[in-house]
Fold this sequence. Notes:
The protein is 35% helix and 17% strand. A 3-stranded mixed beta sheet has the order 1-5-4, covered by helices on one side. A two-stranded antiparallel sheet has the order 2-3. The protein folds into 2 domains: 4-25 and 97-167, no CATH class; 27-63, no CATH class. By secondary structure, the protein is of the alpha+beta class. A hairpin with a 5-residue loop joins strand 2 (72-79) and strand 3 (85-93). Helix 3 (38-48) packs antiparallel against helix 4.
Amino acid sequence: MKTKIFQPGQFEPTDHWYAKALNAQIHPLIHFFMTLSPERIITRYCHMHPLAEREKLTEIFTYQPRYFAWAGTDLLHVTSAGGKRQMVVVETNSCPSGQKSMPLLNEAKEQGGYRQLIEHTFKPRVLQRRKLPPGVLAVIYDKNEMEASGYATAMADAFGEPVYFAPCHEDNNQTRFNE
């Protein structure tokens, strides 16, 4: 695999979603939840869980990590042996995946969660850095090319500049990172 360069305007939805998800419509309940403000989510959670601490939930929702900013979690709906049903966080990923399986929240925004994640997490962090050396944008990936390229092409559009898309597999001895 070779490094590619994505230019603004190259995002093609069929390259970044499974056909089944691309042609699906999001369930109205999921759409409703995904568009709730953090304050509404906290209010609803506290209503359903009276022992929850609103201040702690607000702290969690507003926390801005220094290093691990672009992460995702997997949620599972589980039922205990005693019949208690709940959602649990199973793991934390260093990069969110699942965009390729997620129907669009808004049909008019064809880049969906790829663009939303770039616009709301990555781009603000890049733009707040005052002393960045001259350089280029790149997405370095080890697997999941379909989603990684979705982020790269959405990034090209969000920043209005080319984005390098470079594979970096475990057996690659030509890549190194220096602090």
